[in-house]
Amino acid sequence: MGTIRSIWSVTYSTANSGVRRSDVTMCRRGKAWGVANAKVTFANDGSVGQVVVGPPFAGAPTGLCVTDTMSAVQVPTFGGDPAVFVAQFYVAPR
User: Which of 35, 46, 50, 90 has its CA 20 to 30 A from that of 59?
Assistant: First the structure.
């Protein structure tokens, strides 16, 4: 579901679990559907500092919903630099 793109003390499974719990299935807006990636950057306080959604949802209402949903994810605090997690998600057709 995702790939850690930097070395950090929070485990892959912790980030993956948090992102998976953010239910983006209800984010379909308009006619676009399919698979996309979101780059989720975690601050060392455990909060999400940034979510960048890739095509086909980047900048679209569906992507904004995914951003809001994934921004609510929290992981345990960790030392060091922000950590980047790339999550793949699916928005189903109706």
Answer: 46
